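Suppose a colleague, Dr. K., hands you the sequence of a protein chain of 407 amino acids and asks what its three-dimensional shape might be. Before reaching for any lab equipment, you can write down a predicted structure in token form. Begin with the sequence itself:
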Amino acid sequence: MRIYKVGGAVRDRLLGKPVTDIDWVVVGATTEEMLAKGFRPVGADFPVFLHPKSGEEYALARTERKSGRGYGGFTFHASPEVTLEEDLIRRDLTINAMAEDDQQNLTDPYHGQRDLEARLLRHVSPAFAEDPLRVLRVARFAARYAALGFTVAPETLELMRQLSESGELEALTPERSWKEISRALMEDQPQVFIEVLRACGALKVLMPEVDALFGVPQPPAHHPEIDTGAHTLSVLQQAALHKQPLTVRWACLLHDLGKGLTPEEEWPRHIAHEFKGLKLIKAVNERFKAPRDCQELAMLVSEYHTHGHRALELKPSTLLELLQSFDVYRRPQRFEEFIAACEMDARGREGLEQRSYPQADYLRGAATAARTVAVQPLLEKGFKGPELGEAIKRERLKALKAYKENT
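The predicted structure, expressed as tokens, is then:
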């Protein structure tokens, strides 16, 4: 039995990056031997075990063969005869197909170290094209390591293009797709993820609503970058620079989908794009089974982001409607995330990235003013049921009028 550290842990150590998760592969062992040493089995499809003390994953060396469509369409074979090189060749990228023993002696049969130095994301073997999930994974690695100068090797991008055209991407489950998408959006340069998907034709398959934004012009007075797709990428980049959570990043990606529906004769104006985009966002949300908080914020940001930009001009009654729509009294965090998404949208414009956004503090102040309305005095006056609701609304409107006058 020989044990090797593999994959990301080896890659990140060689890059000088912190190593978080460690994966191990065990060569020359059987399931019975692992159980005898106290390892706990967890793999349903192939033998994976948890270390009795550290809890880290140890997998028996295995080979795989394509047996069906999609990410799960593989037959695995694990046995003591499978070599380390055979195990490594089934991995996605050369930089993920390296192993090292307990003395840090490197096994690198597919030149991963060379590609690390060349800053290339290159597939290990033609079997790469058998797994559609790898299109998303490579795009995610491109987003993660873009700051280090990594790019996708042309021949790998070509394989990704073939996969995108093959219909295999449609076989991915919503859960697997969302796992990759959500992880990619939380990388330092999530816009690179979208750029790579677009470059290989995968964006058109997975998110045609986002792909449709490229080439759609906007008024240059408000959008110096003009192209709606370029603007979306810039907004996403700003969200990452400002360390926004996943909910905000997802909303930033989808906030302008309605502009993709504008007839060409109406360009560069996009009348009512806030509402037109809602059905598209709903479709994307359902396609990937996005978490509810992501779904809700994306819909709300699309509908109300122009309200956010015009916050200083809104009538108190419109401001109250906005606050009610977000249920700021019970869900203050959601309104805070809406404000963040609006600010990222304002900053995601060429040359305006450093522009101040006074609307943010104004909206926060309005929410605070509305929240300070006390219910108890109204109860003491005998209001109840629908009448109480109307009385609270009147008092909140009064508070917002005072707030606007004093700001």
